[in-house]
Amino acid sequence: MARKKTAIEHFLSFNWHRKRFGARRLAKSPKNLASLKTTLVLGDEAIQTRGSEKTLERHLHNLRNEFVGQSELVFHHAKLIVLIRREYRTRQTFGEFKELWNEHADFLCQHLNIRWLISACDTFADHDPDFAISNLALATSMFVNTIKIYESERFITDTQGSVVQEDRVQLLQTELVPLFEGLSCFTVGTDDTLRNMRWRLDRAFASHPVGLILKTIYDRIQTNDTAFRRFKSQHRRDRTSWW
After folding, report:
1. What 3-state DSSP class applies to 162?
2. Global pTM value
3. pLDDT of residue 86
4. CB 66 within 8 A of CB 47
5. What pLDDT score does 43 carry?
6. Is the distance from CB of 229 to CB of 223 less than 8 angstroms?
7. Residue 178 main-chain phi, psi, to 5 deg
8. Would you say 101 and 120 are in contact if contact means Cβ atoms under 8 Å apart?
9. Beta partners for 178?
10. Is 217 exposed, middle or buried (0-12, 13-18, 19+ CB in 10 A)?
């Protein structure tokens, strides 16, 4: 597995310096963040970015286009993440990032998509000195990346249109169907595993803005096209529901 570069390797890298060039000018933060909530990013059409531009100015320009029609505050949030990842005054910028979440977590969770909620979690995981917070953020990121892996596999194997075989659903009501390493299939329709997991998650949901991010993502995966929603549609026992 490839290793991360050391600090001295970064410092000696021309590309590392190029990716941070102009950061002092571009990093200026507005003094009144609340006013950004009601100010929209202007532009013709929102276009999601893919990949990273070498120059910071160009990357932020492209990123701004992604948020056309949305609040300036969510673009400001994305800009802070970019600056942190490019290691511009990391401690100070992460401090601004934490302050933003402490003051505007409800707004950010309401307006950010899952992609940017996970980017926020990755930032907390990388930089928050509180291990409880960084580990919760890492767990949230792992949760979404696991969903992303199997949904990507559904795409590359062209199984999105697969039909549920009801005889197998019924089989799971009476028999243990092994998977691997002692794991077995869910008893689809009645299983209490996800409900019990939800009860454990409730404490994390209330613990920190990262907990609110996790709750926001958890709620959304019950309505987006994921295995959680598909299993939800098969569930028939109210007392073991997990949503």
Report:
1. coil
2. 0.86
3. 87
4. yes
5. 81
6. yes
7. -70, 150
8. yes
9. 184
10. buried
Residue 78: what residue type? Answer: A
Residue 71 β-bridge partners = 40
Alpha-carbon 20 to chain mean position: 24
40 forms bridges with which residues in the sheet?
71
User: What average pLDDT does this structure show over 153-168?
Assistant: 93
Higher pLDDT, 51 or 160: 160
pLDDT tens digits along 45-89: 877 777 666 678 888 888 898 999 999 999 999 999 999 998 888
Distance of CA 67 to the CA centre of its chain: 17
**What is the CB neighbour count within 10 angstroms for residue 62?**
16
N residues, the chain:
243
* pLDDT at residue 139 in the model: 97
Distance CA 67, CA 222 (A): 25
| Better-scored residue on pLDDT, 34 or 93 | 93
Buried b / exposed e over 106-117, threshold 16 CB at 10 Å, is: ebbbebbebebb
165: alpha, beta or left? (left if phi > 0; alpha if psi -120 to 50): beta
Calculate ∠ Cα 82-83-88, nearest 5°.
150
- The mean per-residue pLDDT over the stretch 217-224 comes to 97
Residue showing tokens 């009860």:
199
120: its two tokens? 């926020």
Q: With b meaning 16 or more CB within 10 Å and e meaning fewer, what string describes 232-241?
A: beebeeeebe
